[in-house]
Amino acid sequence: MTGVASYPPRVVPPPGGPPGAPAPPPPPPTATRPPASQPARTGVWIAVGTISMTFAALTSAMVVRQGAAPDWRHFQLPPLLYFNTLVLLASSGTLEWSRRRIDSARGPAGVYLTLALGVLFVAGQVVAWRQLAAQGLFLATAPSAAFFYVFTALHGLHVLGGLGGLTYVLHRLRGGGSTPAPRAALGAATLYWHFMDGLWLYLLVILVTRV
Amino acid sequence: MDRPADQPRVAEHAPPQGFLRTHVFSLDHKVIGKQYLDLALVAVCTGMLLSWLMRVHLAWPEAPIPGLGKLAPTGAAGGVITPEYYLSLMTMHGTIMVFFVLTTAPFAGFGNYFLPIQVGAEDMAFPRINMTSFWVTLVAFLVLISAFFVGDGPPLSGWTAYAPLSAVGKDAGPGQAVGQTLWAVSITLFCVAQLLGALNFITTTLDLRTKGMSLARMPYSTWAWFITSVIGLIAFAVLMPACILLILDRVAGTSFFIPAGLVISDRLQPHAGGSPLLWQHLFWFFGHPEVYIAILPGFGIISHILPVFARKPLLGPRVMIGCLVAIAFLSYTVWGHHMFLSGMNPFSATLFSVPTLIITIPATIVTLLWIGTIYGAKLRFTTPALFCLGFVSVFVSGGISGFFLAQPSIDVYLHGTYFVVAHFHFVMGVAAMFGIFAGTYFWAPKMFGRMMNETLGKWHFWLTFIGVYCVFMPMHYLGLAGNIRRYSAFTDDYLKPLIPLHRFITIAALFTGAAQLIFLYNLIRSRLVGPKAPDNPWQATTLEWSTTSPPPFDNFAGHPPVVSRGPDEYGGTGPAGDYVMQASAP
Lengths: 211, 586
What we know:
Radius of gyration of chain A: 20 Å
Distance between the termini of chain A: 52 Å
Low-confidence stretches of chain B: 1-11
Shape of chain A: elongated
Radius of gyration of chain B: 24 Å
Order of helices and strands of chain A: HHHHH
Helix content of chain B: 55-70%
Oligomer: heterodimer
Number of strands of chain B: 4
Order of helices and strands of chain B: HHHHHHHEEHHHHHHHHEE
Number of helices of chain A: 5
Number of helices of chain B: 15
Distance between the termini of chain B: 25 Å
Strand order of the largest sheet of chain B: 1-2
């Protein structure tokens, strides 16, 4: 049994969660013990903070750069991006579905589906790049294009990191699906994956309005 | 293992087997902490050698430096440093010192070793991420150092790498082709490493505290590392994308920082529309908090050590924590004071000047709390205690000049002069170094299980203390006299009378640097053959002194302590003397 395993996971049922969701384990008697720690979840929250800061810095750089010179060039975003957005949103849904059913036999299947959709999203982004390049819009063509590539590339890298994390979680789930430690890791990975969704929606809004 | 079932723990990892896993690719936070400290030691020696070369050249610009001609045939043909190579040395000195010494040693080094022990944890929350953090830092250092050996040598745009000089490539001068790219890659990697480190520090502090270790009972050093991590998490998250944009400007032909119509070396640069000021804003939004990343761990170390040797609790513990938090918050509101010379609107300058003056209030309170702590105490004058007092001294000396520089009208005159060099070397460089020395003498018994020599330590302190004042105090005068910084030689008529003072500073710098050999000898000798250290040689109270010297693999040999006391209960009566350990029974 691993060290974290002696801790009941902090399962927070979503408000008005589905009736089929497994009931959370009874809370420990908190008076005599320290708060149950879930480093993975805390770590992801901190990562969310720092990644947000990185993209906030890039957004401010974009605003400043757009105002710095009259060479900003508006262009049409590839429509494929909207399809990619749906794929990423769907992957979040499948992961959430999987997290809630992780104790059932079908649970890990949702993680596999998420992995596939995640790969599809990244591949779709690459295709969108190639479509832009086919129009003659490269990194150095215009500042708007430069920011487009920087935003999508950095976000894509973070999605790839999330795919790595999910693969690791899957590996641990197969090692012993019902122990709390991998479940905590799955919860943390799900949180990160949802954040990738939210971040992409934010970036899409920024790109649609500014590029 | 015999542990209470309700003890918070990290994902468990077994004691390592084999040399590589134990000493090289170790997951143990203690080994990683020592690796960081050793890296900082190599870096500080490198950085100091570079400063020696610069100082010798400033005092005797025509004199060849023996052997240098062979090491840098283009930058110092015949041993005489060219103006461009002087700038390269300065860039490397600043970058190495700020990133790989002042960030690496007090924060990543000591923090890694002692934060988990001080909160009663077995290890960091994510040992693998912790190991990755160190190795990425090491790669970043090697990438930076490699700039000496490739292309035209190291970059010359300073540790601040102002655009467009840093962004345009080889036309901007020697070292600006490959060297500057290596610089940007190195700093990007460094940012990633420190973000991973900060992630670990914060999670460990929040989630892995042992039973009874409430926030109010956390040692001040832990508080300082925790707050520093929060600063770093935001600061490095801004510098990293800035460096990525810089790299793209350099290698991919983008124009983030390079304006249109720029002619350098008689060549029109193929860029348009970029904003050099954008780099300054992004850089200093990181750069000013970075100053506090360097100095706050020092604050924590001093607040941790002073009560031990004063045998008194720290005065105003909650005020101290509040001041650290206030400084961390305010550090994000003042970055523009580095840019008063950038043509900023005077109203904007006021906007940055006011918080700069406000931030001196918590800094002053912190200083008064230290002085109040030693007031009326029977101080034990050990080497770490001396370095604590020295820290307070140099911090005040360097801090006071900050009051002047915070005012835009005065800064416009002083900013480009040696006055600023004196200011930041005292308040950030030397003060942080004194914090590192205090921490090293204080914790060496715990880290290496052996005592350092006190006599050598005191020699080291007094020579260093007097030395740094001889080096940096005259620079205030030089600055007031209008002596411009970043010049490699002073040939103007109004600067010629100042050259004797430069020679004095150079001689003082050579002596002060040589005095560090005493420290180096003491450190290496005590690590190898020093007398065995008892578990608690200083009669201190925090958790690192409740375990063996050095601590076992999981820090507390399977018996995590239960805390029932504050971090500095000195001066009362306890079972072992005038102190009560944090892990004592209530």
